[in-house]
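for the writeup, i need someone to sanity check this before i put it in the appendix. the sequnce is what the collaborator sent (i think, or maybe the updated version? ugh). structure was predicted straight from it, no edits. if anything looks off just tell me and ill rerun, i have time this weekend
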Amino acid sequence: MAKRCEVCGKGPRYGHTISHAHNLTNRRWNPNLQRQRVQTAGGTKRIKICTRCIRSGKVHKAS
């Protein structure tokens, strides 16, 4: 399963970890994804959504 938000499309970012000796090793920063039950036009649906979208109110949680 892809580590991607189903609302905004945010995915992993890539970069380097830099040691004190300035050695570079590859790493990635994953988005903080949560599985939430949200209210959609077709009813309730369980999707993976980033915490930024949850906080900003881009979706309505199903009760």
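The beta strands are 13-18, 24-29, 33-40, 43-50. Residues 32-63 form one domain.
thx in advance!!
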